[in-house]
């Protein structure tokens, strides 16, 4: 199997897909990864492939990761024109694969180039708004029409519905809900205390974590307005912000904080912790009482909600993608209003002990083992179909 990434930069889809690759490899399938870009500038930060956590995890596990060596400064695949060397490198990577996995639609601009080895491509879809990236959607439709793409994995019901409504044949859409490593993402009392002590947070203080990259779809300004209301109304509360771009060095985030907090910024900023990219998210989630999501569009099955829930944090989310279904019975869905969100955080922290049994009962539903087995079954099916001889068709009269 060959997985093709647009690039290695922080985001839930890359974390999820890399975990799938590792799980499939553990199950006996041979995998390698090809990244179109070696360096990407996103979320106000230059992100090198070699510095990425997913890259390091894959290579440490023995997965071969190569790159076409491209650099891109605004996200996306960039120009569709590929050099002869890039196509030759891609052809060599594809030649040894029975099936190619495309992490979202962006790599299809490469995989649809003429002259590459004919291999069945499975596209892993992680959005609920395909029309927001019209070029990617058109690339997907073209690759399906050409017979290059033979199946699409939908990580959420909202993903299936959105792509079906966008004109993708329903027979190609396969539902495989997201899952996480339950041995890693679990309540951790010692880790909770250690991180809180490191950040100067007392054990009983209520804590909200926001794990997201700095991107418009995440609606960071809405989150910050809710954080301002909550910090002002709950004097001992704290807010943790994690992810690419969630650092004081990001001028966009700094401006958002100033706009949301106004003249209260000086009073409240000591309880707003900008942690950036973390390699110990399981500990960050365990230290929190609430995991928050304020996205406006694009989400399918947000990984932060699942990971946070598995660590014992109560999910509070806006109604986007499958968020409402994910938190049902274990958390709260809110309108996109800062006061309502802040109030929901207070309700959630008070109800955390009451909701713990529901959070515990949901663990099997979000199992990485279940997810990996579903991916393996689909890939085996696609590989077997590709090996079947093509039946001769009678000539028309």
Automatic annotation (TrEMBL):
Key words of the record: Glycosyltransferase, Transferase
InterPro entries: Glyco_trans_4-like_N
Gene Ontology MF terms in the entry: glycosyltransferase activity
Signal sequence annotation: none
Keyword flag rRNA processing: no
UniProt domain Glycosyltransferase subfamily 4-like N-terminal: residue ranges: 86-184
Full protein name: D-inositol 3-phosphate glycosyltransferase
């Amino acid at each position: 199997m060959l997985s093709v990434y647009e690039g290695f930069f922080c985001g839930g889809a890359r974390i999820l897909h890399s975990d799938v690759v590792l799980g499939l490899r553990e199950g006996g399938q041979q995998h390698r990864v090809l990244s179109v870009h070696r360096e990407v500038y996103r979320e106000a930060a230059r992100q090198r492939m070699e510095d990425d956590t997913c890259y390091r995890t894959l290579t440490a596990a023995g997965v071969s990761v190569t790159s076409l060596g491209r650099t891109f400064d605004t996200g996306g695949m960039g120009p569709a024109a590929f050099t002869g060397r890039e196509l030759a490198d891609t052809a060599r990577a594809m030649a040894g694969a029975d099936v190619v996995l495309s992490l979202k639609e962006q790599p299809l601009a490469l995989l649809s180039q003429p002259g590459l080895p004919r291999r069945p491509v499975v596209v892993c879809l992680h959005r609920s708004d395909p029309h927001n990236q019209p070029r990617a959607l058109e690339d997907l439709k073209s690759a399906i029409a050409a017979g290059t793409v033979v199946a699409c994995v939908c990580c959420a019901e909202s993903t299936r519905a959105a792509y079906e409504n966008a004109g993708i044949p329903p027979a190609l859409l396969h539902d495989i809900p997201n899952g996480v490593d339950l041995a890693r993402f679990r309540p951790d009392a010692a880790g909770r205390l250690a991180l809180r002590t490191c950040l100067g947070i007392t054990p009983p203080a209520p804590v909200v974590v926001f794990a997201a990259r700095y991107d418009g779809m995440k609606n960071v300004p809405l989150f910050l307005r809710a954080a301002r209301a909550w910090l002002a109304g709950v004097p001992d509360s704290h807010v943790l912000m994690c992810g690419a771009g969630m650092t004081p060095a990001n001028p966009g985030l700094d401006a958002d904080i100033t706009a949301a907090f106004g003249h209260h910024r000086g009073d409240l900023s000591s309880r707003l912790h900008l942690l950036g990219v973390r390699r110990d998210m399981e500990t960050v989630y365990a230290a929190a009482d609430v995991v928050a999501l304020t996205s406006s569009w694009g989400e399918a099955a947000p990984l932060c909600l699942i990971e946070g829930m598995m660590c014992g944090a109560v999910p509070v989310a806006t109604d986007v993608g499958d968020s409402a279904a994910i938190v049902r019975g274990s958390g709260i869905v809110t309108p996109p209003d800062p006061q309502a969100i802040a109030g929901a955080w207070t309700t959630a922290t008070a109800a955390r002990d009451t909701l713990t049994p529901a959070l515990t009962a949901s663990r099997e539903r979000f199992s990485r083992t279940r997810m990996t087995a579903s991916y393996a079954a689909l890939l085996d099916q696609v590989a077997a179909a590709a090996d079947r001889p093509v039946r001769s068709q009678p000539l028309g009269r």
